[in-house]
Amino acid sequence: MRRKLVVYRRVSTDKQGRSGLGLEAQQALVSAYVERTKASIVGEFTEVETGKRDDRPELAKAIACAKRHKASLVIAKLDRLARRVHFISGLMESKVDFLCADSPDDDPFVLHLKASFAEEESRKISQRTKAALNAYKVNGHVSKRIRLLYPDGVPKDVVEATAGKLGGSLPQCRTLTPEARARGAAHSAAARKAAAYAAVSDLVPEISKMWVTESMSLRAIADRLNAAEQTDPAEQDEPAARTWSAMRVKRVLNRAGFLTAGPS
Prior knowledge:
CATH class of the largest domain: Alpha Beta
Mean pLDDT: 79
Number of helices: 11
Number of domains: 2
CATH superfamily of the largest domain: Resolvase, N-terminal catalytic domain
CATH architecture of the largest domain: 3-Layer(aba) Sandwich
Number of strands: 4
Helix content: 40-55%
Strand content: 5-15%
CATH topology of the largest domain: Rossmann fold
Low-confidence stretches: 16-20, 235-240
Strand order of the largest sheet: 2-1-3-4
Shape: flat
Largest sheet: 4 strands, parallel
């Protein structure tokens, strides 16, 4: 039987995501592994997020997809997954088989060592960034956002107060109106709901069948999904996914438009 794979790719910035920089190299490594092993790909997910953050909606979808298909999660290189040891350890404990295309034979001990090296490199990058900002401050440089606020020249007192600081961290550079902030919050909430639904969209036909055809209750549907290890990755902080609840089933059915049929 051909090995089934779920591919996960990550880049750190929107610019990298739009340009394809980084993604092409990752795809090349994964494609070479797939060709070499004659495996089949059952899902592909791409994330734009820094390696320091643990909240990864696309990774959550990838893990859920791998569990449903009893597939392995494949990444190009370990540092494309995360640069934190505890994150790698958490994924190992989530009962999802995962491997790195550039070194597929690494055992857990080697993966932990590589994660440690990646975390140390991340720490050094942070130190270099802080040193650069400190030099920026010593030399009296201010951010572009500050310069835009003073087209005729930044006053000396403003330079002293803001030199070496990123514009986004300064109150005077936060120019969003209350209305714009409200729109942003509403958009964020809608995006989270859409992502939660997308993460389990492949289960909608199965859930709707249990609801409409088999006339199962919300609780019974949740119990069956949990018994089948069809985990719910929504709103999670760790790689391990949550179990299903009746309320979660109701939300999925409501979004899919099935609550007008079946039992109440």
